[in-house]
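re: ur question from earlier - yeah i can do the single chain one, its not a big deal. heres the input i used so u can compare w yours
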Amino acid sequence: MNRSSFNPNGRPSGRRAIDIVNAGLARRYRRERRFRFYGISAIVASLVFLAILFGSIIGKGYTAFEQTYLQLDVFFDPDILSQEALATANYPGVIKQSLRQMFPAVTSRRDKSMLYGLVSNGAAFQIRKMVLDSPEMIGQTMPIWVVADDDIDMLVKGHFDLNVPESQRRIKDIQLTWMERLENENRVEKRFNRTFFTAGDSREPEQAGILGAVAGSFYTLLVTLALSFPIGIASAVYLEEFAPKNRWTDLIEVNINNLAAVPSIVFGLLGLAVFLNFFGLPRSAPLVGGLVLTLMTLPTIIIAGRASLQSVPPSIREAALGVGASKMQMVMHHVLPLAMPGILTGTIIGMARALGESAPLLMIGMVAFIVDVPHGFTDPATVLPVQIYLWADSPERAFVERTSAATIVLLVFLIAMNATAVILRKKFERRW
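and the output i got, formated as tokens:
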């Protein structure tokens, strides 16, 4: 009989040792299965919440990529469009006259105001451009597709509940009658919303676009990359390869790690105090925004750069020094090229974080209403996250879908940047 089957008094025990071990293994296996179940459940829950978030954003925003147009029989009245003053002629009057001719039964001032509200205010600028390009159109009647008002656009897209009383709707019954007639005459059409990608901001939702914000983000990130990339790499190389190991370098390393966790709005306050109030740089400019985001992304790039340099095996350094290379040659010709994939990955991730930031830029005035598309680093500008913030604060229903659409565009840029980082790392990474 096995010794383990006896208790301390020398009497036979009730359970064998193997039974005790098997019972312990069974408990461990059950715990392992529970832990695995909890982990899979957490991942599934995260994916479900992410799908709900993306589904909500896409569901609200995809309709912004289409815009409703109305076809009007526009008479280019010579009495209104004087040849001597084409640039300043009464183009809104041309639109109103065309609407009155299409709906002659509308006579009261109140009904006329609602009738004119079917068409966007931007239609007058469209007619103006057409006349200035082709003055020979004056005196003719032509079918012209013009942009519908934002409320009409929301009506066509089905965002209004027509079952509620008229007093609770922005669209009145008489306007529904006019729109029904236009639809029966095939004068209502939805087209791809090019204005959303080719125009700057506007108070009118149907005229608002993201080009100004995208251009502002481009210039801001260009300044950020031009400053943070070389400074971050130089700092990482010095701290990892050349700096002596003493209390001062330890203090610098601790501060860099702490700066990576500082709330971004603190960098905005620093930029407001230093770049705007002390140096007097232009407010709401990509130059100042890039400087602020440089301060914010530098710790991320330095930490990623140092981690990449540490991943290079010491044998590479020893071999380079052994064949007579100086320390600078060893770093520049051997260590840095091998660490560059990781450095690029950290840089792209830092730039993606900078692209999605709005809090520090709000502090330096990039929250201003900017209509014109910026053409330089010192022009007034805003960025895409701030544009989303501004539209989210607008009461019009049409701005809700444009907010979601701009968020979709921002997410596409962020996903593309992170995918680029992953691809670069997979392509150039070397395992030792």
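The chain has a mean pLDDT of 88. not sure if urs matches, ping me
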